[in-house]
Amino acid sequence: MSGGEFDFIDRFFAPLAGEGALGLGDDAALIGLAPDRELVLSTDTLVEAVHFLPDDPAETISRKLLRVSLSDCAAMGARPRGYLLNISRPAAFDDQWFASFSTGLALDQKLYDVVLLGGDTTSTRGPLVLSLTILGEVERGRAVRRSGAQLGDTLWVTGTVGDAALGLQALLGELPDEDGYLADRYRLPRPRTAFPLAGLAHAGMDISDGLVQDAGHLARQSAVRLEIDAASIPLSPQAAKTGEAWFETCLTGGDDYELLFTAPEEHSTAIMSASREAGIAVTRIGRVTAGQGVVVLDAKGQEMRLSRTGWQHF
Ligand SMILES: [Mg+2]
C-alpha cells in the first residue's frame, strides 16, 4: 500500500469503519457470531459506463451499491451487520468525488445500522470499478431460500412494482416525472431490511431483474408454477398515472428491490401485522400452483402475453 493510498483510506473510509473492522489497521476484520447464527454473504459490482455514468452523483452511486446488497440480505431474512468495499480507481475520479461517495455511505450506514469492515483500493487505467460484499446474520436454519415455496402458498410483494424501471425511462426523457419520484426510485432503492421474512415466508427473493423474470427464478428453484393476478399488482400513484402502455414495463423492468415471497395462507394475518409494524406495505398478488413457470392473469383469468420478461444481463 502506497502513502497516497493510506491517506485516501484515512480521509474517506476510516470514519466509516465500525465494530469488527479493528480500525482498518489489521490484516482482516473479525466478526463474532452467536452459536445459533449463520453468516449470510452477498457481493455486487458496479462498473462505470455499464452500471452508472461518470456524471451520476457519487453520493447516490455509493448508496445504491450498498442498498442493493442490503436488499439481498433482506431477501434471505437476514439482518445486515457490515460490508467490505473494493475500489479500482482511475485518476479522473478526484478526492471531491470520493468525499461525496463516502458521505452517501455514512448516511446509509446510519439508516440501516451497518458499518464498513474493510476492503481494498487500487489505481487503474480502466473504468472505475466498485465492489461491495455484505455480511449479515440469520438464526440457524431460518434463512429464506428461493426453493421453499409449497403448493397452496400465497404470493406476496412488498412496496410497489415498476417505479424504478419507469424512473429510468423518465431519466432517458421517455416519460414525464414532475415530482421526480420515479427517478428517485431508480437511483435509490429502498431495501426492505425491516421486514421480517424469516419465520413468515416459505420462499423469498428480492426483485432486481423485473417481477416476472425473478418470479420465474423462484418458480424454478421451488419446482412450482406461480400465478400472478395483474389487477392486484401494487403500483404507486405515479406509476399508475403513466397508463396501460407502461404496464408491461412495470412487470418486466428491473431495479425494484422489493421482496417477493410465498407464505402459507395461515400466515396472512401475521404478514399484515408485520407490515404495519415495519411500515412497509405488502400486497398479495397471486398463488403457488402445480406446474412450472410464471403466468400473469388478466381480470378475466386469461393469461397475458408479455413481449419480454425482464432485464438481460449480457
Ligand atoms: Mg437478489
Keywords:
314 residues; alpha+beta; 60s Ribosomal Protein L30, Chain: A; Phosphoribosyl-aminoimidazole Synthetase, Chain A, domain 2; 2 domains; six-stranded mixed beta sheet; four-stranded mixed beta sheet; 24% strand; globular; binds magnesium ion
Could you please describe the fold and organization of this structure?
This protein is of the alpha+beta class and 314 residues long. It folds into 2 domains: 3-139, PurM-like, N-terminal domain (60s Ribosomal Protein L30, Chain: A); 146-297, PurM-like C-terminal domain (Phosphoribosyl-aminoimidazole Synthetase, Chain A, domain 2). The protein is 31% helix and 24% strand. Strands 6-8-5-9-7-10 form a 6-stranded mixed beta sheet. A 4-stranded mixed beta sheet has the order 1-4-2-3, with helices on one face. α3 links the parallel β2 (79-89) and β3. α4 crosses α5 (181-187). The mean pLDDT is 94. Residues 72, 75, 205-206, 208 line the site of magnesium ion.
Short note summarizing the structure:
With 314 residues, the chain is of the alpha+beta class.
